[in-house]
Amino acid sequence: MTNLFNPDQLLYGGDYNPEQWPPEIWREDVRLMQEAGVNFVSLGIFSWAKLQAGPEAAFNFGWLDEVMALLHAGGVGINLATATASPPPWLFVQFPDARPVTWDGVRLEVGGRQLYCPSHQGFRTAVRALVRAMAQRYGDHPALRLWHVNNEYGCHISECYCDLCAEQFRGWLRGRYGDIDALNAAWGTAFWSQQYHRWAEIQPPRQAPTYANPAQQLDWRRFSSDNLLSLYELEVAVLRELTPHVPVTTNFLGFLKNVNYVQWASREDVVSLDAYPDPADPHSHVEAALQYDMVRSLGGGRRWLLMEQATSAVNWRTRNAPKRPGLMRLDSLQAVAHGASAVMYFQWRASRAGAEKYHSGMLPHVGEQSRTWQEVKALGAELRDLKGLARMGVPTKVALLFDWESWWALEIDSKPSADLRQMPVVLKYYAALRSLGQSVDLVWPGSDLNGYAAVIAPNAYLLTAQSAGNLRSFVQRGGHLVLGPFSGIVDEHEQIGLGGYPALLRDVLGAWVEEWLPLAPGETLGLRLEDGREARASTWAEKLHLSGGRALAQFTEDYLAGGAAISEHVFRKGRSYYLAADLAREDIAWLLRRALAAAGAAVSDLPLELDVGVSSGEDGWVLSLLNFHRTATLHLRLPEGGRELSGEGSLASALALAPLAARFVRYDRPIVPSDVRVVASDPAHD
Ligand code: GAL
To answer: How far is the CA of 314 from the centre of ligand 1 (A)?
Structure first.
């Protein structure tokens, strides 16, 4: 396989869309890419309409040959798209029913992008033919480094409710359940007279008079993710057959709810991500970090590609703030600190026309005189100096449990509260871990948990017997488990475990839940932590009974007063903690501090604006320090003996980190992020 990851190099570049520009610009593009240190571009993502003029037309590769030759001559490697992301209008004249249908029965129209029904055979045949032609033409091109399959599967169209998909869904269900009685049992169709007698009676959960069957909804989510995955696999099969020497990726889009990335990542040679933290939100870097840790974990800890981000503003928020000077660099270096070996953008040159003409690019409309261009060039040079990081991994002993299926199930309608949502809860626990100076891996229900000291599960609403067993044996062997509220409620069919929640983990927790108290917006419920501090639950509280565990916090109000709000239980060689309330980040951190300390992890106290990480490899340990605060300088105390990564000078342990500044510090001995202390901030901030 091509040596895509030259271990001595970080990749730098972006989406290159030459079809938007006349050929005379292409030469200029390559010259400017060289000037900026660009060594990698994603090419052809939206080129299908230019490559193929109609169903009978020969492929028009001439222009792409020319662009690829220019890039190759300029020393720019190519991440070549299969060009299937946005089918051309003629395909829908040929196949009007290849247009997808929404939940409420609307067949979508030509004029945007990503218009396709994943089940349509005519569309699939056209995709196969295009991918085959691309692979045959360019498989041995000397600049080809990677295949970029399609683009952000599921970003706009993650499900299609047409009759073709309904038929596929029935086939998928047959495969899953075998016979219809098993489906009836799994879906609980005895309720509301929903029993099916023939497969043909089953439909997707389209708009119905009231709540659709929850298990049907859950299986629909699974099917829709699998159906898209089959589209990806269709392309990959062609590429593996014709170009087995070229690695393959498809770019993920943050935490995209409807696509279960765990199933996809194992089918890629390298995992890649598109991330768009909002520059107007001073804490958006925390969610970005969570995404980066997710994608690194999806790749089994290997380095990954930041395939897209914005140099400055995007065009798709209500108000699109630019990135202030320094923020683009900081955002990019953050990805590298969390394991990225490529820093890429959408897109190389900002468009003059089309829906994204107000989206920033590496080369803005105003051209080389822009500050963005200056920052792009400076970052390209800086990344060359940070190449040592490309060989390193991100060590950690702390894992955050994340599960797409549980996310889907939690957010199906008709729950005790519609306010308990997956991502805000996960983000809060993650932020708490970061504030304690922890590097974090993400793990999935079936993951091997050996090697972690603590597993934090902010919400595991859906827990199969197998995944509950995985958590149980983790604790049995000496692990420390923190479980958030409304966990372990249902199995894979959205069926409730009886006898006290969570049915499968009551003994592990030494506690069980009797009932739930959803809180209205603005409503809170008091509790007292073991150290005497007062805290308040919002959104959610539970009546918790202890059965062997002990209370680390108690409710102080309403009819829960005196009852446990947080439990701790020693189970075999390990320990479990359960939170019977949705708490503020600081109070979650209070518990996590205790749990991590018991698990033997060093903890510190860091402001969220400071992203601290450690990378390590054969060449030693590198501490990354990124100050996302817009105005405050952070005064830090570092472990002794550090040296600048890009230089030989040794560093004093007192370091002032200016607003939006980043430093990488090298050590010859093991260090952890919690070795860093914030001594003061200037001006003081809360
Ligand atoms: C991504 C997409 C790009 C571009 C970008 C704009 O989701 O892959 O093609 O549209 O968003 O931010």
So the answer is: 9
Query: Judging by DSSP bridges, how do beta strands 11-16 and 40-43 pair with one another?
Result: parallel
Residue among 356, 360, 362 to mutate when testing ligand 1 (max atoms within 8 A of CB): 356
Residue 153, ligand 1, Cβ within 6 A:
no
Tokens of 489: 């409620």
252 lines ligand 1 (CB under 6 A): no
**Are 573 and 476 spatial neighbours (Cβ–Cβ below 8 Å)?**
yes
**374-421 tens-digit pLDDT:** 999 999 999 999 989 999 999 999 999 999 999 999 999 999 999 999
Are 387 and 403 found together in one domain? no
Candidates 628, 629, 668, 627; CA nearest to 645 is 668
Residue 217 Cα to ligand 1 middle (Å): 28
Please tell me what DSSP assigns to residue 443. Answer: E
Mutate to test the pocket of ligand 1, among 274, 309, 317 (most ligand atoms within 8 A of CB): 274
**CA 188 – ligand 1 centroid, Å:** 41
Tell me, yes or no, whether 3 lies in a domain: no
Residues serving a catalytic function are 152, 308
The count of domains in the chain is 4
- Calculate how far, in angstroms, residue 346's C-alpha sits from the geometric centre of ligand 1: 6
Q: Which of 235, 253, 270 is the last residue of a domain?
A: 270
> Which pLDDT score is estimated for 3?
58
CA–CA gap between residue 338 and residue 613 (Å, rounded): 7
Among the listed ranges 163-167, 500-504, 643-647, 675-679, which one has the minimum average pLDDT value? 643-647
Same domain, 213 and 316: no
pLDDT at 329 over 90: yes
* Sheet of 633-637, strand order: 654-657, 633-637, 677-682
Regarding predicted confidence, which is higher, 315 or 9?
315
CA 419 – CA 518 distance, rounded (Å): 8
Same domain, 167 and 313: no
- Give the range of the structural domain holding residue 572, as residue numbers without chain letter: 398-598
In 530-572, the DSSP E strands lie at: 534-538, 540-546, 550-555, 564-571
Instruction: Find the CATH number of the domain harbouring 663.
Output: 2.60.40
* Cβ–ligand 1 contact at 16 (below 6 Å): no
Q: Quote the DSSP letter at residue 367.
A: G
Q: In a mutational test of the pocket of ligand 1, which residue from 41, 113, 157, 308 has the highest number of ligand atoms less than 8 Å from its CB?
A: 308
- 409 shares a domain with 337: no
- Over the stretch 235-279, which tens digit does the pLDDT of each residue have? 999 999 999 999 999 999 999 999 999 999 999 999 999 999 999
Three-state helix/strand/coil letters over 374-433 = HHHHHHHHHHHHCHHHHHCECCCCEEEECCHHHHHHHCCCCCCCCCCCHHHHHHHHHHHH
**Is the CB–ligand 1 distance for residue 220 below 6 Å?**
no
C-alpha distances (whole Å) from 407 to each of 41, 347, 356, 664 are 34, 32, 31, 36
The pLDDT assigned to 661 comes to: 98
Residue 577 has pLDDT above 70, yes or no: yes
14 located within any domain: no
Are 621 and 602 spatial neighbours (Cβ–Cβ below 8 Å)? no
Written as six digits, the tokens of 364 are 């803005």
